[in-house]
Amino acid sequence: MQYLPGLPPEKAEKLNLYSELIHESNKKFNLTGLKTVEEIRSVLIKESLIPFSAINVPRGTLIADIGTGAGIPGIPLCIMLEDAEFTLFDATLKKTEFIKKIIRVLELNNAEAVCGRIEELGRTVSFREKFNWATTRAMADPYMASELGAPLVKPGGFIYLYTSGRQGNLPLEWINHMSELGLEEIRGNAKQKIMNSECDGILLAKKQSTDMRFPRSIKAIRRGSGIIR
Predict the structure, then answer these.
(1) Using one digit for the tens of pLDDT, what is the confidence trace for 37-81?
(2) Strand ranges for 16-110 from DSSP E
(3) Which residues of 7-18 are buried (b: 16+ CB within 10 A; e: fewer)?
């Protein structure tokens, strides 16, 4: 399929192979609820690429993918944005081992997989305020995702949340919490100057360092968001 206009054929071939590997491995352990290769290509892969397709990413840009699962959106993005360097985080060993296999098979020199709980890794010297960007897709609600992502991103960087939540309709308590994390939501024309205008996720700019109180435990974050699971 055509993922994006102008995408080089060799990159499309890698994305096709990646979709087939997801489909095959999904029979062994749960990576996605999508059942066909075409669904994986159109929903998982293409929709991962679109928001970042208009971004100017300088060589050496560091991008964190939080709760990456099957490598979404990190693997498609690292294929498209070969000058950036990606770290894909997940707490499940089987999933990070799958991603390491993908990295080997597709010969991706700009990606690595890290297994661990992001609320713990975000407090370490190795990862705290290291990245220019953080992104996550379907891992958590915006309140939780912003708290888990903020400690990873250096001031001047960005967080992009792939979410179906309507931009601008976040609860005031959530917006205030993002501000407490050192984040500011970017909307409208200002957002379109950075991201592809077709994307409807939430774009946050890191304005100042995140207080060392964050990230809290998952239980504490859920309690703070008002969502009990």
Answers:
(1) 999 999 999 999 999 999 989 999 999 999 999 999 999 999 999
(2) 62-66, 85-90
(3) eeeebbebbeeb
For residue range 211-226, list pLDDT tens digits in order: 999 999 999 999 988 8
Give the CA count within 13 Å in the CB-facing half-sphere of 28: 8
d(CA 151, CA 131): 9
Dist. CA 85–CA 46, nearest whole Å: 20
Q: Please tell me whether the overall predicted TM-score, pTM, comes out greater than 0.70 for this model.
A: yes
C-alpha 88 chain-centroid distance? 8
Helix (H, G, I), strand (E, B) or coil at 63: strand
Token pair of 4 as six digits = 């994006």
How large a percentage of the chain has pLDDT more than 90?
Answer: 85
Give bridge partners of residue 111 from the DSSP assignment: 86
Residue 135 phi/psi, 5-degree rounding, is -145, 155
The closest of 121, 20, 28 to 68, measured between CA atoms, is 121
What value, to the nearest 5°, has the Cα angle with vertex 76 and ends 35 and 4?
A: 95
What is the residue whose two structure tokens read 């081992």? 97
- What per-residue string of b and e applies to 153-162 under the rule 16 or more CB within 10 Å gives b? beeebbbbbb
pLDDT reported for residue 229: 47
CA dist list (Å): 62 to 5, 40, 154, 190: 25, 26, 10, 22
- Count of CB atoms within 10 A of residue 109's CB? 10
Q: Are 12 and 58 in contact (CB under 8 A)?
A: no
How many other C-beta atoms are found inside a 10 Å radius of the C-beta of residue 139? 22
